[in-house]
Amino acid sequence: MKKRKLLVYSLIFASLFSGCVDRYDYDGCHKPTYLSYEKLRTDYPAIKAPREIQKAGKIYVYGDILLINEKNLGIHIVDNSNKSQPKNLHFIEIPGNIDLAVKEGYLYVDSFIDLIVLNINDITNVTKVHRKESVFPYNVEQALSQEDLDKNRCYHSEKDEINGVIIGYE
């Protein structure tokens, strides 16, 4: 009889605390910040002034040029013709960029789900050649920092790919 009572009380207790919690009232959940597909595709890639590398990712050597990925942010273009004094030339801002490859003067990069081709034959004048949309599968966690992942345990329920790609949480 004791076992039965314990089982009944356990079930009641478990059912009381297993209900759904409104995701915006719960301290562990936050509202996602989206970058729309339209903005992703019209504003980027953007050739910017050089900036300091915060967290280097993959490095690709192309002649005297170093292409240094900064995960989910873009690619630093560095003139390495003088090995003792490399010169940072540009930063190509590419949200959702993780990987890169070069072939015959063309830089191939990802931007979340899209593939972008840039002409780097004249490294002082980098130009976009082509963008192929929706080539790669979307990973909702891709652009999230470890802090976002740690503080927001319910991000999977927030995913809404129609609004664009998630770049953080507020």
Kindly report the spatial arrangement of strands forming the biggest sheet: 2-6-5-4-3
The largest pleated sheet is described as: 5 strands, antiparallel
CATH topology: Thrombin, subunit H
State mean pLDDT (0 to 100 scale).
84
Write the layout of secondary structure elements.
Layout: H1 2-17, E1 32-35, H2 37-43, E2 46-48, E3 59-62, E4 65-70, E5 74-79, E6 87-93, E7 100-103, E8 106-111, E9 114-119, E10 127-132, H3 146-151, E11 165-169
Antiparallel strand pairs: 1-11, 2-6, 3-4, 4-5, 5-6, 7-8, 8-9, 9-10
What does this structure look like?
The protein is an alpha+beta fold and 170 residues long. The chain has one domain (23-169): Thrombin, subunit H (Beta Barrel). The protein is built from 3 helices and 11 strands, in the order H-E-H-E-E-E-E-E-E-E-E-E-H-E. The chain has a 5-stranded antiparallel sheet with strand order 2-6-5-4-3, with no helix packed on it. Strand 5 (74-79) and strand 6 form a beta hairpin. The longest helix is centred in the N-terminal third of the chain and has 16 residues, at 2-17. It starts with a helix and ends with a strand. 17% of the residues are buried. The model is unreliable at 16-26 (pLDDT under 50).
